């Protein structure tokens, strides 16, 4: 394949791996497992679960690594959550939640299938080419042991690949001069981002913050005056350049896996993720421009 074809194939693969990792964030099992170890504030659940791999970190490190969350929201929950449950306790609770979530969404037969074991092997092989430098969330998760069960090993590998690409994407956002909320608003404007109603709740921003960021993007000529959030040609080009730069920064694991491996992993991952989506893994109104 040409270099451009390789990057397109890598992005297609990522696009079906990433949702598989993210299923547990929207699962009631995660809140239940963390509540069982003392983390009863649902607002702390996401921050604890995703940052636990970095240890008992404070809000500054998490705001930096997560990029698009309001620091005041992060500081409301960290480091206080670590006085309730240690990072090790949270990681164990997260793994239990992932296990029960996948059993519900996919079924025991799929989890025990040869295809799941094959997907785990392929995804883990891809992670062999991931790099730690300037990738804090990937590096922290890469230090965790690989679970024994194939479906958990596959989920672990999707986590590594997701955070590896995500860390690179943040570098691209910085290079493009987009602040955290401008990044979110411009992504909403593509029609593929999280809907504003979800962003405002989960990321801790107000509607005034959101509208101010949209105003800054309009001043840069990246959004039209359309209140529905429409990218200009310059805005469309910027978002395309962001994804292309992210593809370049994330090419190593997929080149390492090779064209046949990427194609097979994409095929397997599409089936698993499609089943999870069909079984209600995410809210129906999660993606879109609706306020």
TrEMBL record:
Record-linked InterPro entries: HTH_67 (IPR054058)
Q: Could you tell me the superkingdom of the organism this chain comes from?
A: Bacteria
A Pfam short name: HTH_67
Name recorded for this polypeptide: SalK
| Phylogenetic classification of the source organism | Bacteria, Bacillati, Actinomycetota, Actinomycetes, Kitasatosporales
